[in-house]
Amino acid sequence: xxPKNKMLTIEIFMTKKDEQEFSLxxxxxxxxxxxxxxxxxxxxxxxxxxSIALCYDKLNSIVVISDESIVSQAEYIENDVKPFxxxxxxxxxxxxxxxxxYQHSKEAGYAKGxxxxxxxxxxxxxxxxxxxxxxxxxxxxxFKKGAQKVYLIDRxxxxxxxxxxxxxxxxxxxxxxxDGTDGRYLxxxxxxxxxxxP
Length: 198
Fold this sequence. Notes:
Elements: E1 6-13, H1 16-29, E2 33-38, E3 48-49, E4 62-67, H2 73-79, E5 82-83, E6 90-91, E7 100-103, E8 106-107, E9 115-116, E10 118-124, H3 130-146, E11 148-152, E12 168-170, H4 172-177, E13 186-189, E14 192-197
Parallel strand pairs: 1-12, 9-13
Antiparallel strand pairs: 1-10, 2-3, 2-4, 4-7, 5-6, 7-10, 8-9, 11-12, 11-14, 13-14
Helix pairs in contact: 1-3
């Protein structure tokens, strides 16, 4: 029987301050963790950063999270970086063995003053790749430990859903800033707004 691919996604609300705190927490568990500022690169040597909060070189930057003990920076460059199909620049793999994709939260273009969720995503074969399985589970655990639950809110009445969302979570700074005050909310799309509760 072929091994089963495992794909995990969690929807996240984080400010740069949250990203910095999250990066520090990750480094406590993984001293050799590194963060790739992921976008089309001009050279085959992608920018490696010390924090998710520093990965904003381009407007479309996302982040690849990895650890030297699973995929070294040299291995990533050798095995995962390829010339861009158009022949201009280079790209790498955002997910796979030892890799977690992080998409930044961003200002919602449809709702001034609101922040739209980003996400954490991983895709791997746990039966064949126990190291990545442990890495992903630990990163998810660290994220959830620092996160707050979010609740759907009716912006007209202020009424909150009785139950928290199961896929969406906010870290403390995002929860504090986008708490519904002066129209500042967490949002997923034009008809879904949330606030967080500890």
